[in-house]
Every structure is written in structure tokens, then in C-alpha cells.
Design brief:
heterodimer; A: 189 residues; mainly alpha; Rna Polymerase Sigma Factor, Chain: A; Arc Repressor Mutant, subunit A; 2 domains; 8 helices; 65% helix; B: 552 residues; alpha+beta; outer membrane lipoprotein receptor (LolB), chain A; Glutaredoxin; Beta-lactamase Inhibitory Protein, Chain:B, domain 1; 3 domains; eleven-stranded antiparallel beta sheet; 22 strands; globular
């Protein structure tokens, strides 16, 4: 059950990672992210028996997190009398949030999140797993039953797709955009 | 490889920065941990608290029995004297407690609303229960509805998740569960047990005594009780003539906490109200909003409804509402057309009389309004037909208006589900009320009118999930919306089973959706439904990728 971890251990080990993932899906609504992260762990730890153990605990928690975030936005949309958002189309998340002040770091994170959402699921998942959750290529390969070389190639394609999507969306290359690895050039409005 | 590692480092740095930005604030984890484990009924640390895990709304019920026993402050003899004196003062019509208990035991059915306030400053929480004959009980507690029989919980459901909860997973310290055990075991209702239950054991085996307050309201008799195990005390209001208790309040002076029970007596709700099987069918009906599910079978004895009933398709087809020039109109006369029935209550808009959804409807009208097989119809919920005519002219909308001048009591609005905050009802070609929501998703309309497109596929999946699970989505209906599949393959599930694949592309996004549908050709139903979204990989170099960071 749960990779042999107790509920306490699962919480301790994965809370920060899951919170970051939820916050990434919901940025910049930190307050809601806290509630949703709580819901994720409540659902996961209450239903730990249902964890089939055919994937990692983190993958399982991520899938619960995606569902909870989707539910949250559906509820937000319903409350506002807007359209319900299908689970796999969260592109309108930014519009579903109340306006609030966001930091430069959050703006940057929001742009990354938006580009990630525009990627095909498979590529977005690879990038999330590798860079957001710091998974090793070996672990990713084992989980998918593929070779490490195949994963490396898929990651390279995903990174290229990300750059291309960034270029399309923001009108300049990733390196030219404001952020730690880019210059401080102004973005196209 | 160098390209890869440079690119890899750039992405790692970028995401590391994002992780730092999004990291949980200090101490958040600890706070969430407390909440999560408390909700689950587990201690979050090694040293468990006896109170942790109890539902916050019902703390006294779980803890009252642990309280320190105090000696009775009023001796039995003194109590008897006071009771006798008050009885003499109030006259012979005042029922004794034994008579009240006897009358209550003769009741065949009652309902009660229990509100709890943990402390003087806490939010109030509510539980509702309905006790029927033969030990049948139904509870609504938060998002849960529980059904019981003779003191046992037989089935339980969550109306938000729309799932059945396994009985063994229920928290046995939950107020509803405890009340079910305590109240449902007897064929007749025992007022002593009721008081004991609602006071969380604080007023167990206490005989209420007549209170001097009884002289204030002549048609009420009031009894007071004091706890043997703590400072809690209770008060019961009883109708003098019928001898029925109508209100019980239990106070805890230590923190101002309070439990209050209000009783209602009447005819027994219909049998299906106590039938978990009937309720589970409502659960699968997505046209019934979550918020109305707990009361969907509950009607007032004189026929008023607490929530809209389920839409009655047959009645909706025959129900007539006149057009603004007085011609009768019904959905049944428009089979073969998709109808978007827009329910508009001009009083419920701000400012009144404005059609808030006009722009949305105009867009739909422009998109599909010229088709023979689609119509928008506004049902105006208003009594003054002449004013509706004027409002329609002011809005400058071209589609048909209906108004019977009966407001929310009109035949058609009742038939499509009664008075509810409905704005739209999508009626398919066969006359099925397909969707009732606050706002009809334009993709839904697109599905009904022109069939499935790339953009509405995921919505279709969301919408069909319940129908597929319930075995209601027919192959015929699938074909009417999707058309012929792009691929058909035999399914390993068995003979007469096929997997159909529909492929839709979105060139702009370089993506395609593939919808996989498992069909049982013998039964003519869809048995499985899933989809994948994948990239259509362009030729190498097509995307004009910028150079990777650190690339030579």
C-alpha cells in the first residue's frame, strides 16, 4: 500500500511537491491552491487502499491533483455562471480567476504554465515529471517500459515543442524573455 | 548530446525558479497536515488527541460521555415538589412528561432539523432526519444522504461526488450514524432516547420537569432538564393540546455551545423517499443539480415542493405555452428539431427586464439560427404578457417568445423540472431534455446541431460518462452525433463487441483527438468511452525552433 509508506510518510514526503504542482496548475491563486492541495491529500490518504501500486505514489497523487484542480475550476465556473471546463482543457484557467496582484516570479511561472498547457499531454507530462518533480530519466524510462535513450529523445522533442510554443505565444525566443535565463527584453503585448 | 545537456540545464533552471516561486509558505504543510488527518479521524502526530478526527460539527456528542460526572444538583424529592407545584399552578390541562412521552411514542412519522453550534461563536451546522414507519430512517448530513432500517445504516451516498459510500467506511462517530443507531432500533419512538441522542448523552435518564416559563405562553408547556454528568441543561417545548414536543434545546454553559432540534409532524413521505435504490437512480441523473438531490422525492403534504422534481420528459413534450400572439406551442410539435429553450425571468435580472444572455443567444442564433433543424425559444416567466411583448421589442431579438402569464406556475416550466434557477434547456431531436444548466455550453448546442467536432469532443466525453456507465447511450444516438466511425475493429471483449475510433484534427494546434468507443452491437449500447489527445508531429525543422540555450 502506497509503496509501503504510511499515510504520515506519504504526506511528509510529497506535500511540497504536490503543493507546487497544484499551485502551478492554479497560479496565481495560492489561497485556492492550499485548499485544493488539502483536498488532494484528504482524497488520497482516505482512499489509500485504492492505490493499485502499478505506478508511483507521485503519479497517483498527480492524477488526483489534476482531477481536483479541474473540479475546482468547474465549481468556480459554475458559481460564476460560466461554462463548465472539461478536465483536459484548462487553458482558460487564467480567465477563471479573480484579478489579483502577481509577482514577477508568478508572472513568469504563469507563462510557463500556459505554454505547458498548450503542449500535447504526453510532452507536458514528460517535462513536468523531469523538471517540476525532478524525476530521473531512469525512473521515467522504467515507468514507461522504455529505454533511457528513448526518454532522452522524447524530452528533447518536448523541449523543442516548448520553445516553439513559447515563441508562438510570446513572439520571442525563450532565452530572450524576462526571467532568470533570459534577458530583460520587453515582451510583445 | 551537448545540445541536450545544455538545453536540459536551461529547463532545469527555469523550472527550479518556478518551483521556488510556487513553494508552499512556511508552516503551511503543518497546517494542512493537521486538517487532513483530523478530517480522516487520525492523529497527525504520534501523540493522538482524543478529539482529533471527530466531525467538528458534533463535538459534544462524541465527548459528552467522557465528561466528569457531577452529582445531581436537584434532588429527586425537590424536583417532584417543584413539578407538582407548577402542575397545580398551570391547571389540569398541562400534560405530565409521561403523557408527552406516551403521545410521542404513538407518532408514526416525524422529521427533525438538528442545528449545532459548537461554541457561542461557532458557525451553525445542520442535520436533517426523517423517521418513517417500520424503522425506516433517512438522514441528510452535509453532502451525505444516509438510509437506515431498524437502527442500521443500509446505504449512504455523497450528493456532490455522486457516489455511493461503503457503509463500513462511514465514520461511526458521525452524528447521523449515531442517531441512526439510537433512534431507529425501536418500532415506536422513545422521547427519552431522542433527548439522550440529541444531547450527546448529557441528558441521559433525566426526567424533564415543568418550567415556570410555561406561564408565558399558554399554548406551550415547557420542561427543563439538568444533566447528571455536567453543567449542560436542556429545555423542551411541548404543545399543550396535542402533547407533542416541537423544540428541544440543549445548552452547554461552559462555552455557549448549543444543540437545537425542531420537530415537524405530518404524513409520511412517499415510500421512494426512504428507498435507497430509487435515490441511487436520481444520483445518476445529471439533470438534477447536486443541491436539490437530497430533497428530490420529498414533497410537502399539500403538494408544495422543496426543490424542483426531476424533469418529466413526457409531460414536457405535451405541456403547452402560448406564443406572444396567443398560438399554442409545445415541444412535442417540434420533434426533429433541436430546441434551445431559454427560460427568462425578467424580474431576476439586474436591471429588471434586461436579457442578460442576449449576446450569447444572438451568437448562437447567428451560428445556427438559419438551420431548419434548430430553434431558440425564450419562455418568459412573467405575468404581464403585454409587457413581455414590449420587452421583446426592446431587446430586438428575432426568435420565438412564449409566455402563459402564470409565472413560475406555468405548465411548461413545471414540466421541465419546476421552478429552478434554470436558464437553458436543450431538447434534442427526439424530444429528450438533454441538458439543464445555468448556461448552456455553446459546444453542447454544436454537438446537438452539427455533430461532433474537434473542439467539443472533450465536452462530449464529460457529458456521456454517466450515460455510458448506466448503459443508456445507444449506438443509434452515438451515430446520430458522431456519424460513422473512421475505424472499426473487433474487440477482444467478446462477440458482437467492437471498438470504434473517431479521429478529428485541429490543424491550427497540430493536434488530433482520437475517441475510442466500445460498442455492444447485440444490445445496441455503448459500453466504453475514452479519448486521447496527441500531437501531429510536423516535419523536422518545420517549427523554426530557436537555438537551445548553450548550444554551439
Amino acid at each position: 500500500m502506497g509503496d509501503g509508506l504510511s499515510r504520515q510518510e506519504i504526506f511528509d514526503r510529497y506535500f511540497d511537491t504536490v503543493y507546487v504542482y497544484v499551485a502551478y496548475l492554479m497560479i496565481p491563486d495560492h489561497e485556492a491552491a492550499r485548499d485544493v492541495a488539502q483536498e488532494v491529500f484528504l482524497a488520497a490518504l482516505s482512499g489509500l487502499e485504492s492505490f493499485r501500486g502499478d505506478g508511483s505514489v507521485l503519479s497517483w497523487l498527480r492524477s488526483i491533483a489534476r482531477n481536483k484542480v479541474a473540479s475546482h475550476f468547474r465549481a468556480v465556473a459554475a458559481r460564476r455562471g460560466e461554462l463548465s471546463l472539461p478536465a483536459d482543457e484548462l487553458a482558460h484557467i487564467a480567465e477563471a480567476r479573480p484579478d489579483k496582484e502577481v509577482s514577477e516570479g508568478e508572472k513568469r511561472a504563469l507563462r510557463i504554465a500556459e505554454v505547458m498547457r498548450s503542449l500535447p499531454d504526453v510532452q507536458a507530462e514528460l517535462l513536468e515529471e523531469k523538471y517540476l518533480h525532478s524525476a530521473t530519466v531512469r525512473a521515467m524510462a522504467e515507468r514507461r517500459g522504455k529505454t533511457e535513450e528513448a526518454i532522452e529523445s522524447a524530452l528533447a522533442r518536448a523541449r523543442r515543442a516548448f520553445r516553439a510554443a513559447w515563441q508562438r505565444r510570446y513572439g520571442r525566443a525563450l532565452e530572450e524573455s524576462p526571467g532568470p535565463q533570459g534577458s530583460q527584453a520587453h515582451e510583445r503585448p | 548530446m551537448n545540445d541536450h545537456s545544455g538545453d536540459d540545464r536551461a529547463f532545469a533552471a527555469m523550472f527550479k525558479d518556478m518551483r521556488r516561486t510556487l513553494a508552499p509558505p512556511a508552516a503551511l504543510g503543518e497546517s494542512v497536515r493537521e486538517q487532513v488527518f483530523a478530517e480522516m479521524g487520525e492523529a497527525s502526530k504520534d501523540a493522538p488527541s482524543p478529539h482529533r478526527g471527530r466531525p467538528r460539527a458534533w463535538p459534544r456528542l462524541a465527548t459528552a460521555l467522557r465528561r466528569v460526572v457531577r452529582p445531581v444538583t436537584l434532588t429527586a424529592a425537590a424536583a417532584a415538589c417543584v413539578g407538582l407545584a407548577v402542575t397545580l399552578l398551570l391547571g389540569s390541562a398541562t400534560p405530565s412528561w409521561a403523557q408527552v412521552a406516551e403521545r410521542f411514542a404513538a407518532v408514526k412519522t416525524f422529521s427533525a432539523t438538528v442545528t449545532t453550534r459548537r461554541t457561542a461563536l461557532s458557525e451553525v451546522s445542520e442535520l436533517e432526519l426523517w423517521m418513517g414507519s417500520e424503522g425506516r430512517v433517512r438522514f441528510k448530513s452535509g453532502t451525505r444522504v444516509l438510509f437506515g432500517r431498524k437502527g442500521e445504516v443500509v446505504r449512504a451516498f455523497d450528493v456532490v461526488e455522486r457516489t455511493e459510500i461503503q457503509v463500513h467506511q462511514l465514520d461511526q462517530c458521525d452524528m447521523a450514524w449515531l442517531l441512526m443507531r439510537m433512534l431507529g432500533q425501536r418500532q415506536t419512538f422513545d422521547l427519552g432516547i431522542v433527548v439522550d441522542s440529541f444531547s450527546g448523552g448529557a441528558l441521559k435518564d433525566v426526567t424533564p420537569q415543568l418550567s415556570g416559563l410555561a406561564s408565558v405562553a399558554e399554548d406551550l408547556v415547557i420542561y427543563d432538564m439538568e444533566s447528571r454528568v455536567g453543567p449542560a441543561w436542556g429545555r423542551i417545548w411541548v404543545l399543550r393540546k396535542s402533547r407533542l414536543p416541537v423544540r428541544i434545546v440543549v445548552w452547554d454553559p461552559r462555552d455557549g455551545g448549543r444543540e437545537e432540534v425542531t420537530f415537524t409532524y405530518g404524513t409520511e413521505p412517499p415510500a421512494e423517499f426512504f428507498d435507497p435504490e430509487a435515490f441511487s437512480k436520481h444520483l445518476a441523473d445529471r439533470s438534477i443539480p447536486n443541491g436539490t438531490l437530497p430533497y428530490v422525492d420529498l414533497g410537502d403534504p399539500v403538494g408544495r415542493r422543496y426543490v424542483p422534481g426531476p424533469p418529466e420528459a413526457a409531460r414536457a413534450l405535451t405541456a403547452v405555452a402560448p406564443t406572444l400572439d396567443g398560438r399554442p406551442w409545445s415541444l412535442g410539435n417540434h420533434l426533429g428539431k433541436v430546441t434551445l429553450l431559454h427560460v427568462w425571468d425578467p424580474r431576476n435580472t439586474n436591471p429588471p427586464g434586461i436579457m442578460l444572455d442576449r449576446e450569447y443567444l444572438m451568437r448562437l442564433y447567428e451560428a445556427y439560427g438559419k438551420r431548419e433543424d434548430f430553434q431558440i425559444v425564450t419562455l418568459a416567466i412573467f405575468e404581464d404578457i403585454e409587457r413581455v411583448r414590449k420587452m421583446k421589442a426592446d431587446q430586438q431579438v428575432p426568435w420565438l417568445f412564449l409566455c402563459d402569464g402564470k409565472g413560475w406556475h406555468g405548465e411548461l416550466i413545471k414540466a421541465i423540472g419546476g421552478p429552478r434557477y434554470t436558464s437553458f434547456c436543450l431538447v434534442d431531436r427526439e424530444g429528450h431534455l438533454r441538458e439543464i444548466r445555468d448556461l448552456a455550453d455553446p459546444r453542447m448546442v454544436g454537438v446537438e446541431v452539427v455533430g461532433a467536432t474537434y473542439d467539443n469532443y472533450s465536452q462530449i466525453r464529460v457529458r456521456f460518462d454517466d450515460d455510458v456507465r448506466a448503459g443508456r447511450l445507444t449506438v443509434e444516438r452515438l451515430l446520430s452525433i458522431f456519424g460513422e466511425p473512421d475505424e472499426r475493429t473487433d474487440s477482444p471483449r467478446g462477440p458482437n463487441q467492437q471498438r470504434w475510433v473517431y479521429v478529428r484534427r485541429n490543424e491550427a494546434r497540430d493536434q488530433e483527438r482520437r475517441v475510442f468507443v466500445d460498442v455492444d452491437l447485440e444490445k445496441g449500447i455503448v459500453t466504453g468511452f475514452s479519448q486521447s489527445l496527441r500531437a501531429v508531429q510536423p516535419e523536422p525543422g518545420h517549427q523554426g525552433l530557436p537555438p537551445a540555450s548553450g548550444a554551439p
